[in-house]
Design brief:
This protein is mostly helical. The chain is built from ten helices and four strands. The protein has a two-stranded antiparallel sheet with strand order 1-2. A hairpin with a 2-residue loop joins strand 1 and strand 2. Helix 1 runs antiparallel to helix 7 and helix 3 packs antiparallel against helix 7. The termini are close together.
């Protein structure tokens, strides 16, 4: 549950961060869709504007320490950001939001660190208690399914053979779409029902 809550807090913080970056440096916000990138977040704790980036010595950008962790900025990443900085358009000039961007970037990195630590603890606990089940490695081999999601799924579902069909399993997880009915008419399918454990859908 704590891991799930951290994920939700991280997502909410990323959304706030993206909104502020769109004001300060929109080229960065458009270029990088994944704000889970640790090197991007580390960079944003150091510089928050294109002018700030161009004014920073290259050697200061190679390694950035945040919350006791050292992050390395790859050369190709730095070159991409440098190009974006050189071609940046005039931006928001109201109240300074650079300190807020720095704070939000640090918060996202903190959440990522906590999630990594809890995920490792979860994997260790699962390895010691699950008796070497083969379900987790098999699930993890599916594109888009990580180890943590596979562990949650395996722990909550248990033996998948207890379900008579994949449709029944999907319904148990709340992955089946809502159907809006009126009398004898079906008005179409909506969003998934989200019944069952949210951790299994994590």
């Amino acid at each position: 549950q704590h891991l799930h809550a951290l994920g939700k807090q991280k997502t909410a913080t990323i959304n706030r961060l993206r909104g502020q970056i769109a004001l300060l440096w929109p080229e960065i916000e458009r270029e990088y869709k994944d704000f889970n990138s640790k090197q991007l977040l580390a960079l944003l704790t150091l510089v928050q504007t294109p002018e700030g980036f161009l004014a920073t010595a290259p050697e200061a950008l190679q390694h950035i320490t945040v919350l006791g962790t050292r992050y390395t900025l790859r050369s190709n990443f730095q070159e991409t950001v440098r190009t974006l900085a050189r071609h940046a358009q005039p931006r928001y000039s109201g109240v300074s939001v650079e300190p807020l961007v720095k704070l939000l970037s640090e918060q996202v990195l903190f959440f990522l660190q906590q999630i990594d630590q809890l995920s490792e603890q979860l994997k260790d606990l699962y390895a010691r208690t699950a008796g070497g089940t083969t379900q987790e490695p098999l699930l993890s081999s599916i594109k888009g399914v990580g180890t943590t999601s596979a562990i949650f799924f395996t722990a909550i579902i248990g033996d998948p053979h207890r379900f008579s069909s994949t449709k029944q399993l999907a319904s148990y997880l709340g992955l089946t779409p809502r159907v809006h009915e009126s009398g004898t008419s079906v008005h179409g399918r909506g969003y998934i029902q989200k019944k069952g454990s949210s951790l299994a859908r994590y």
